[in-house]
Amino acid sequence: MSASLSDTPTRTGRPTEVATPREDLVTVLAGACLVGGAMSDAWAHTNLEMTESFFTPWHALLYFGFAATAAWTFFLAYRRRARHPYWWRHAWPSGYRLGAAGVLLFLFAGLGDMVWHETIGFEVGLNAAFSPSHMVLVIGAMLMLTSPMRSWWAAGAGGGLRAGTGVASLALTAMGAIILLWHSIAFAAAHPTTAYEPVDNRTDRVEHILAVQGVGSYVITTLLIAIPVLMAHRRRATPGAAVAVVGGVALFTLASLGFPGVPVAGALGAVAGAALADVVMERLDAARGTDAPLRMPIAGAVLTAAVWTGHLVGLHLAEGLRWPVEMWTGLVVLCAVLGALLGGLLTRPATHSHS
């Protein structure tokens, strides 16, 4: 595997190097082991009665994935040492310098987590999601997992294997974020199938609290799936990006819970909606061009409206919607508006030529 060299100079005056698609593929496979270990560990904690121990098969898979990703990330710079004598400073392929920082951050957080456990104990429930050491661990992991994505963009966001590794990197990163956001993921429950009847504007009723929690989970999950998909779409329409991210987030969430029936039906509907969104966004680009007005806000609205409409249809077919019609239709509109706003924020600034 030969390293490719870009003509774009860095601030040091040296040309930047771009990892090959096969190098990015190895990073993705190692990262998939890391995320798979986290997913299996979440499943074990949810579905098995077990005493907390570091030495478990799920931890073994997780830390094997970390070790493989870390070693490969540093090897990518080391193998370029012939062109860069100070390889630890200048030999990183585009996108991998932050990944190397993520390795060091993960190691630092891992040591901190060990001290935390020895002094405070093992976390359960929401405590685990809000543990500072766990947050830093996830941030370090996400910097590693996004290396192929940055490499894809540095190479010009091309197609083929390069696009495949970039999209996989987006999906793995979104899946990794669930470790901290599992309490607010819409795929984890079927809130619209629970009856809600407002009574005298009371906000202390259990039904009201559950409904508010459900709406909040859709908003949080919209941010989680729309930001990476729109970041990819900002450069070019990428077939399969929405399916990969939505499917990955749903898979991690549902696998952790043991694949409960009704939420699985909702997730399948959401993935179908994501597939429709992929097609529509690609067709819009083909018809209107990538410089068309409001391209990104329209893409954001299409994506979120399609995903959550599909999710609600899936829940309805499996169990029946019991939220008032104003709530579930308004939910789709709310998320579509949020998607449009995110698209607007991610729109490239207009360039003006000066005569």
Account of the 3D structure:
The chain contains 13 helices and 2 strands, in the order ββααααααααααααα. It is an all-alpha fold and 355 residues long. Strands 1-2 form a two-stranded antiparallel ribbon. β1 and β2 (15-18) form a beta hairpin. α9 runs antiparallel to α10 (241-257), α9 (206-235) packs parallel to α13 (325-345) and α12 packs antiparallel against α13.
Rg is: 22 Å
Low-confidence stretches: 1-13
Silhouette: globular
How do the helices and strands follow one another from N- to C-terminus? EEHHHHHHHHHHHHH
- The strand count comes to 2
Mean pLDDT over the residues: 86
Kindly report the spatial arrangement of strands forming the biggest sheet. 1-2
* Helical proportion, percent range: 55-70%
Domain count: the total is 2
Distance from N terminus to C terminus (CA atoms, Å) equals 46 Å
Number of helices: 13
Instruction: Indicate the proportion of strand residues.
Output: under 5%
